[in-house]
Here is the input.
Amino acid sequence: MSNIPLDKLQDWSKQGHRTVMGDSLVMLAAEKPEMVTVTADLTPTARLVDFQEKYPDRFFDVGIAEQNLIDFSAGLAVEGLIPYAVDMAAIVPMRPAEQMRMALGYMNLNAKVISIEAGVRFGPLGNTHYGMDDIAVTRAIPNFTVMSPSDPLSIYKTIFAIAEHDGPVYVRLTGGPGFPIMYPEDFDFQIGKAVEYKEGSQVALISTGSMLGPAAEAAGTLEAKGISTRVVDMHTIKPLDTDMLDKVFAENRLIVTVEEHNCIGGLGSAVAEYKAGVEGAPRQVMASLGDEFKKIGDYKFKLKQSGLTAEDIAALAEANL
Amino acid sequence: MGTNTVEYIQEKCAVMRRDVIEMGYVAGGRGAHFGPALSSIEIVASLFFKVMNHDPKDPRWPERDRFVQSKGHACLSYYSALIESGYIDKKYMSTFKQDESFLSGHPSRNIEHGIEISSGSLGNGFGVACGMAKAAKIKNENHKVYCLVGDGECNEGIIWEAAMNAAKNNLGNLVAILDRNGVQLAGKTSDIMDVDLAAMWKAAGWDVAVVEDGNDLNQMIEALEAMKNSTVEKPHMVIANTTKGKGISYMEGSLNWHARAMDEEQYKQAVSDLEAAE
Here is the structure.
């Protein structure tokens, strides 16, 4: 793992999460000989062409067959390889959920599943291509770690960190071309340890994935109005960083969870489940995609439609404080 | 294991059938999948006592051949082979399907006792086995992967996803055996999904052989040895025509004995049938 210079981060920010992932897998392969990449006919889309060219003997395309993407990867993991299975969040985990449960979760195999285009960035393609339920599906599988990094550097760090974690991991990637750099410099990144991105005593905005960008922007808006706002980057949704939540519960009056996911089963649910057992914990409201199949539109439209812009998040917090 | 005589393995098959009945009866009202366990006895015995290169004293031996029972509901044939070859002590037989037992109704990964992977969610054991065979090739290891699948199991989409990919990867180190007993949970396979399995496996790119009587040890061993020694760089499929519930008079070919609980009278009859055959 190396320090990533700012100009590289800027390029990654411009290209979007797929390129960050594709480049990071190539970089990881150089350091981790037992790591291999598996995909289901998504080589160019998932920016895996470089990996395929550099490591043809460590790259496998199972065809448009997502159940086998997981079972095949499981078989590789049984024999000690570390497969990174790459697909699209609209399809994986939902279609091979049972393979992920039976093969990866049940046997606690050291396999990684990465889904690109989680959330609604595929806007005009329609609801068939939105990854709205992947956290809910994977979170309910024992042994799985579930992650959603927020920006170029944290995606890179996630891809390296999970190689050192012995067990199944699901990573959802959000943030298309132009997604902001939230971490311009190296920072402490550990699986299961949330990042306190900004301190604040009244509102706590807890986001996951690239929603950190609008959450941080919303915090600026709230601060300008005199509302002290904490921002937490909950890049690991399972296991949840309950130490960080305990701190938030003790110090903040309102929690706003922010996620590009269904309001059921995602980050908001995870926080609420933990909060249910904590006496005197603050109120929580959720910014999410809701629980419906909405009309199509481009990415900006889709985020606005669900109240996931910085402006909407700030307004939600202010209205509930 | 390769030096065992057919007579020796025949005796093992008789003991394994008795083990299946004993364990299934112990399960009481929890029931057992008797039919598919009994149809697959000769297949599993051929592998464990003749064809496979393995060492029950060293279950983690890296060079061992791997066995995956994808039709995990037939676990009693698998467990009986593991018991009779020394991976599982006989004392555990009474724990089948009991509280806290590792002998669950479908295999749960337990390398120490010879269970390579968890299986029983149909189709997935086969998919994982294909990945295991590919891993052996990637790592330049010479062992083989044997995988038992069911005919009803071939209804599953994952079977064909994995079959195509195994052929694409020229997995000549993979030998699958299809227990063609003709009966699945809700009826005859010919009524539920009447397909030409040999033609389908060939079309998927596999090297296919058909065994006329998969409960005939000589035929079964001959077919498996041929596939084991084959230099054809395609995954191998042995379609073994078997009899559901083989060896128990009232179970043979029956639609009622895919899975059910056995009462005392049925148990006595089963024991009597097996004793008469010895």
Notes: Chain A has a mean pLDDT of 98. The interface with chain B takes residues 36, 57-58, 60, 62-63, 65, 67-68, 70-81, 98-99, 102-103, 106-107 of chain A (CB under 8 Å). Residues 225 and 318 of chain A are 9 Å apart (CA to CA). The domain at 6-172 of chain A is CATH 3.40.50.970 (Rossmann fold).
